[in-house]
Amino acid sequence: MNLIQSHAQKRDGFVKEFALKLGVDVFTPISHTIFSPEEIIKKNGGKPPLTYQSFIKLIGLPPLPLGNGSPSIPPVGIDNSNDLPIPTLTDLGFGDVSQEECNPFIGGETEALKRMDASIQDQKWVAAFEKPKGDPTAFLKPATTVLSPYLKFGCLSSRLFYQRLQEVYRKVKKHTEPPVSLEGQLLWREFFYTVAYGTPKFDQMEGNPICKQIPWNDDDSLLSAWRDGQTGYPWIDAVMVQLRKWGWMHHLARHAVACFLTRGDLFVHWEKGRDVFDRLLIDSDWAINNSNWMWLSCSAFFSQYHRIYSPISFGKKYDPDGKYVRYFLPVLKDMPKEYIYEPWTAPIDVQRKAKCIIGKDYPEPLVSHLGASKNCKEKIAAAYALNKQIKGERNQVQLQGVKKNSSDSRNTDDVIKQPPKKLRQKKLTSY
Ligand SMILES: Cc1cc2nc3c(=O)[nH]c(=O)nc-3n(C[C@H](O)[C@H](O)[C@H](O)COP(=O)(O)OP(=O)(O)OC[C@H]3O[C@@H](n4cnc5c(N)ncnc54)[C@H](O)[C@@H]3O)c2cc1C
Q: Do 215 and 170 reside in the same domain of the chain?
């Protein structure tokens, strides 16, 4: 088995080796995920399963949370005699981190358990949970659990959450199933961890074997307009402001802005959007963030690039009055609801009355959605065709290599790096 050494794996290996040299016993339980990614990859013949369904077939019964019948961690002697005060953020060199508005989520295990209990006690809600049906604009009472920051920081055990869900499922007559159920959400997390663990260069496009090679733009002005909530599309900008202020948005809101930045409108590289999320999300998680960015940009896992979210009608469908937009973009708070998702179409006297002149108080749309999305589809179609051709070429070379048992020194990677002349010409003209 050829498991890939990510930064975290290398770091852990180093710490383990260092501790062992000093005669310190090292015990490394799997606790951040329900299943062991390494075990699943082993069961799958050394390769990570690349679809959710094939992953589900492999997992078997989940281990119980510690202290619930499963073997416990050997006690570690903690010496508190030299207690030092907890350093402040300023001590750690972060300076002033005050925000315009504090995110509404309190940290810590006590809060995590309280939040989980609050979700679980509504058994009807848990039993009926269907992720794609949630309302991404429901911000005062979010449509999902908002447990992701707690899972990310280890304030909440994914195994405990999983077992508590099973208790509810046993009590109710009928409940939804993976992939859309709450259990299914936790399994998405497990699936993405497993793929991330076993895929080389998972956090980049180049050299990542599951990632489609797409000639994304490298346009920092488009990126900064998106990042700063200045695209001129209120639904997109409101989500980006929620990200900056709260560090958390509903999954479908993340879909909307990730699609818009990449394959939907701006054609900016998913790695750039990933970095912005990584910096601003309070639940930012290496495996989950990279996976979802590849998904949304149609670079891996999902390939229906012709299905593009509209930056106008997506938000409108859930919130026709625009309450979400008005909350996160107060500059538009007095815009009549007919124009709230397309304020540039409001007559000038309406804009004056709403004290919001488009182009002055709030930007004009950065791109025309219809034209931009058509362009994006064409570029992705060309990139997909090229990826397919190169893959075909590679298979052919491999086949010939086997047939001839050849001494040809050109390896398959060279084919990807240096496509034949015909393909290179196509690449230049089609992008
Ligand atoms: C572009 C993009 C980037 C994302 N980046 C992150 C990230 O950095 N960290 C992160 O935790 N989630 C990320 N997600 C996944 C998802 O949006 C969040 O996990 C979810 O919105 C968190 O809210 P919740 O806890 O209320 O979720 P719930 O719906 O209540 O789900 C419960 C738990 O299941 C897990 N989960 C739910 N959806 C997913 C998913 N699609 N993939 C993997 N695990 C999931 C999370 O741990 C979540 O807390 C991203 C999604 C997109 C589209």
A: no
Q: Are residues 139 and 193 in the same domain?
A: yes
Q: Whose CA is nearest to atom 2 of ligand 1?
A: 292
Q: Are residues 25 and 156 in the same domain?
A: yes
Give the Cβ contact number of residue 161 at 10 Å: 24
The finding on whether 227 has its CB within 6 A of some atom of ligand 1 is: no
Q: Which atom of ligand 1 is nearest to the CA of 158?
A: 47
Q: What is the CATH number of the domain that holds 135?
A: 1.25.40.80
Residue 143 CA, closest ligand 1 atom number: 26
Last residue of a domain, one of 198, 213, 235: 198
Please check whether residue 74 lies inside any domain of the structure: no
Nearest residue (by CA) to ligand 1, atom 15, is: 251
The continuous run of DSSP H or E covering 237 comes out as helix 234-246
Closest Cα to residue 143, out of 105, 112, 182, 179?
Answer: 182
Number of domains in the chain: 2
**Can the peptide bond before residue 343 be classed as cis, meaning omega within 30 degrees of 0?**
no
Q: Are 328 and 245 in contact (CB under 8 A)?
A: yes
Q: Environment class of residue 291 by beta-carbon count within 10 Å: exposed (0-12), middle (13-18) or buried (19+)?
A: buried
How much is the pLDDT for 30?
85
Q: Is 145 in the pocket of ligand 1 (CB under 6 A)?
A: yes
Q: What is the pLDDT of residues 204-259, one digit of tens each?
A: 999 999 999 999 998 999 999 999 999 999 999 999 999 999 999 999 999 999 99
The Å distance, Cα 265 to ligand 1 centre, comes to 23
Task: Tell the residue nearest (CA) to atom 37 of ligand 1.
Answer: 185
Domain containing 341 equals 203-431
Which residue CA neighbors atom 49 of ligand 1 most closely? 148
Q: How far apart are CA 236 and CA 262, in angstroms?
A: 13
Q: Which mutation among 155, 190, 194, 283 tests ligand 1's pocket best, with the greatest number of atoms within 8 A of CB?
A: 283
What pLDDT, on the 0 to 100 scale, is given for residue 213?
Answer: 97
Coil, strand or helix: which one is 206? Answer: coil
